[in-house]
Prior knowledge:
The chain is α/β, with parallel strands linked by helices. It is built from 15 helices and 16 strands. Bound molecules: N-(iminomethyl)-L-glutamic acid and fe (iii) ion. N-(iminomethyl)-L-glutamic acid binds near residues 70, 313 and 316.
Amino acid sequence: MTLWRGGRLATLAGESGWGLVDDGALLVEDGLLRWVGPAAELPPEALAAHEVIELGGALVTPGLVDCHTHLVYAGNRAHEFELRLQGAGYAEIARAGGGIRSTVAATRAASETELLAGATRRAQALMGEGVTTLEVKSGYGLDAATEARMLRVARRLGELGVDVRTTYLAAHALPPEFDDADAYVDTVCRWLPALHVEGLVDAVDAFCEHIAFSPAQVARVFDAARRLGLPVKLHAEQLSDQGGAAMAASFQALSCDHLEYLGTDGIQAMARAGTVAVLLPGAFYALRETRLPPVAALREAGVPLAIATDHNPGSSPTLSPLLMMNMACVLFGLTPEEALRGMTVNGARALGLADRGRLVAGQRADFCVWDGDHPRELATCFGQNPLKERVRLGASQGEA
Length: 400
Ligand code: NIG
Ligand code: FE
């Protein structure tokens, strides 16, 4: 048992508030939080701790959960950034064969070793800002072999000391060898069982958009997931309102992500299903979108709000979860507390994980130690990285 003491804890216990504990302590045993509270109230069992770590007044929060990334790919799309700055649209570039398809070509040509090298560097950057749980999607292979290769690489990132959840996103774009989206959707459904048997799939996602797949097509992919008992999530209403969120909610989706064009029906359906709204300010910012996700209505309906980097080479090439927390506040109007909840407890919920995201007894001992006086600083001080230490399953991952 290890005792960490003398920290200012932002526990996020309860449904709102920071859950601040000044001069707080955490008792950690077997990778779990055994007790959390004011040091003055430590239970007698704390005397049995074989190690005592002094936090020296540092700030402690739950470990960050980045619940939406496309971390495994090859190539880069910086030239598309230039094209967009000159006035080209994201959809226009995609229709001209750029966008997702150009990353597909580069990813197909890359070996597992090459993909792992790139993804490792990116995962380490996220971990360097406090990420302890990371979701990684496929979706740049769009053929059976490359989708499997991406998911295997994603799994191997777990060896770096971060918890990885994998998501099958073969319904991301129509690959060049298909001209019939329905035929491709059938194929996507056929690939899934073997990947599932190999243990490569924790959830199933799709891109529901006029430049990708319709709600009816995605529903067929979700049916295939349901037959295997796999949870679903959706890239929904990013560029237009397709009714994807309501369809996903009818499958009890863990999350719907992006949501700039989400309407009232989608919000109500998500609220009823307990689906998390994952907001992705990096993509909104980089694509210079102007339509804001309906944050006030989501809040009012009681839909939990999460935030993620959406790291990908096209629409959101960021590796900074802290910057996303800042952007969620400045661009979308979240409070700094909502931003931290979005990158911790609600991010975990978007992955179907109830065992992390808060500093309360019984949860995994995944936490971050930061320089700073108050947790609101994490979302305030953009471009800074105050991480001192990242702790996963009770084990310190070294000085940041
Ligand atoms: O989440 N919207 C679809 N998929 C990604 C972008 C993928 C890409 O442009 O390569 C996203 O923004
Ligand atoms: Fe995405």
